């Protein structure tokens, strides 16, 4: 089992919980680059991935893992309980979405479902997704996974050149994405994008 999270307490807690499930070997990594390297090196049965990772986001890491192994089982484990993040995680290829501020054993339940070939979104998030389909919209609903990743990095204080370097995209692509996000979110300035990122708890 691979756990990719930059918070040692989260990694330790997950490892301790999994230790009670039998002979499960746990590997961990603290950023997306190391996470992909660990996945390639160890070929784990499943990967538990945070969204807010140093460098690239958990969405991007999920895509990279699936490019390496299309059959990969990725569970996104995030602080954010906005249903749009669950939707974007599934779009990126994750098999499950669980929030850290809920019962930790939901993660274990998600892993069991995923290992059995299924998918899992914790019930209250799934209910919100159903509400969104009925008409309720998140301010972030119009953003793509890539745009969410860029918005998160803006909220962390990264400049456009730093985001371009972290995502391996051109400066022009990042600038164009920011311009598009301003229109989608009705933000007039980059500072307003940063404010939105903070209000939506992307950081």
Explained architecture:
The chain is α/β, with parallel strands linked by helices and 203 residues long. The protein has two domains: 2-133, Rossmann fold (3-Layer(aba) Sandwich); 145-199, Winged helix-like DNA-binding domain superfamily/Winged helix DNA-binding domain (Arc Repressor Mutant, subunit A). It has ten helices and six strands, in the order βαβαβαβαβαβααααα. Helix 5 (105-115) links the parallel strand 5 (96-99) and strand 6. The mean pLDDT is 87.
What do we call the CATH homologous superfamily of the largest domain?
Response regulator
Query: Could you give the distance between the termini?
Result: 26 Å
Averaging pLDDT over every residue, what do you get?
87
CATH class of the largest domain: Alpha Beta
Strand numbers in spatial order across the main sheet: 2-1-3-4-5-6
State the low-pLDDT regions, or none.
none
Secondary-structure content class: alpha/beta
């Amino acid at each position: 089992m691979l756990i990719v999270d930059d918070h040692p307490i989260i990694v330790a807690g997950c490892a301790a919980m999994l230790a009670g499930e039998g002979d499960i070997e746990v590997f961990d990594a603290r950023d997306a680059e190391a996470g992909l390297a660990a996945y390639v090196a160890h070929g784990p049965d499943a990967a538990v991935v945070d969204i807010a990772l140093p460098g690239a986001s958990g969405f991007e890491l999920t895509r990279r893992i699936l490019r390496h192994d299309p059959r990969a089982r990725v569970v996104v484990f995030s602080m954010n309980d906005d249903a749009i993040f669950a939707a974007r995680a599934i779009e990126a290829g994750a098999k499950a979405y669980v929030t850290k501020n809920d019962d930790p054993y939901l993660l274990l339940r998600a892993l069991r479902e995923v290992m059995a070939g299924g998918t899992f979104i914790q019930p209250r998030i799934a209910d919100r997704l159903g509400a969104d389909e009925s008409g309720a919209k998140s301010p972030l609903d119009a953003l793509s996974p890539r745009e969410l990743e860029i918005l998160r990095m803006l909220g962390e204080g990264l400049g456009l050149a730093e985001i371009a370097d972290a995502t391996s995209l051109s400066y022009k692509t990042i600038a164009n994405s920011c311009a598009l996000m301003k229109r989608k979110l009705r933000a007039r300035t980059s500072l307003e994008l940063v404010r939105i990122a903070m209000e939506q708890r992307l950081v």
